[in-house]
Amino acid sequence: MGSETKRSGFAGLWLAETLRVINSVNADWLNHKAVSQVRAATPDNAPQTLAVNWSLSVAERDGLVQDQLRWQRRAVLFLMIGMLLSLLAGFTGAITMLDSQQGVVNIPWSLSAILGIHFLMLLIWIISLFIRSDGAWSGRLLLSLLARLRGHHGAELAQGFVTLSQRNKLMPWWLGSVSQLVWLAGLLGSVLALLTAFSFQYYSFSWETTLLPGSVLQWLQESLSWLPRILGVSSDTLTLADNGTGLADEERRAWASWMIVVVIMYGLLPRLLAFVICLLALTLRARFAKLDLSHPYWQRVLGICLPTATGGRITDPAPDALVSARFAQPEGVFDGPDAAIRFELDASQTSEELRLSAGQIREVDTRVEREEELHWLKATRPKKLLILCESGNSPDRGTLRWLTRAGACAGKLGIFLMPPQTGQQDRQVIWRQLLTEAELPEERVMTDWHQVRQWLQPEAGSSSWQEESQGNV
Fold this sequence. Notes:
Blueprint: H1 3-6, H2 9-23, H3 35-41, H4 47-61, H5 64-99, E1 104-106, H6 107-129, H7 136-146, H8 154-167, H9 171-200, E2 204-206, H10 214-230, H11 249-287, H12 296-305, H13 320-323, E3 339-343, E4 362-364, H14 367-380, E5 384-390, H15 397-407, E6 412-418, H16 425-437, E7 445-446, H17 449-455, H18 465-468
Parallel strand pairs: 1-2, 3-4, 3-5, 5-6, 6-7
Helix pairs in contact: 2-4, 2-8, 3-4, 4-12, 5-9, 6-9, 6-11, 7-8, 9-11, 10-11
């Protein structure tokens, strides 16, 4: 359970939601083997913590933690590329705007070109925060952007991220954080362009207008100088010039400095403040983010993990094909050696009572191993197949379906239910009931080793793997 410390908080919830997305199309991913570890790591049995810890265990086992880390690195790389492009666009745009004025900078026009779109988009973002929305449009927008991030389980990680963010109302703040960073980079490019141009080229400055009276320009200068003046940047020595002629070098430097300060004060600082607000909102909201435990998937997980879960039976509606799964009478010739499978059990759960070496019992834990084992059984066609199951785990439809498929590959199928832990005896009863409903003969469902030894006795004229292993004990 080393992944909880590394993938805690929102990252852990994100992994859990991603597993839910994956398992919505693949119900066989339920990992009973991790249950004992999860319970040990969650002494208070809080449902949210149980669900997350169980998901972290499965994610670590199946490599999803590393997939998430790679996905995050790609996302950061894409963001850095976007910020670099924005910085270059801001730099190029400001240089082009200055060059088009042929050495005389019209200050109102230049500031409008640099800050106009910035102010408009910032206003739209602020208004959007007060509009009630379920986040669907922002979710679709972010999902379309995240779809560009390829990689193993990339689509599922993106869907899990968006679903979790929408449910916990984090989407506007994620999008806000990204947009503020991109705008910060663009405005920084504009400031760098002004510094570069004013440092290496000779410019004069003017306040020009055709329709507006001069008093408007005077008011505009005083208004723009208000914030710099509060922060200690004085503009008292600046005088308006209608065409930029007659300005002394000291006045040109003063106007250049004033213009750069205005772009920083009204461009960079508001975006930086907006980014900090988004970051704080994300931090606070992510701290209280939760999974939707009412979802049938999480109900199944909690049914497995909660030691005192009531019932433990499958409560979500199932397709008819799953409900009607039955242990059918095997057809054909089964002349392969008897086989035993430890199904989703910890390696510590020994089977010494069977007098078998570890190499003679096959292991099944993951979905891939389930399919591989079915192929092996079809090729081997054992006379008898014994499957050892953890009776403390609630059986899900994927498990029952796999057991029926495995039983069809052997002449006789026996299922041994490992002794349950204290307080879980009711689950053993549930196992028996479900296996009986699936038409497995009651004598094939065993709960003590004496029954197993009796069932494993070789029939007349045949030998079993139990006898073959006696000499190794």
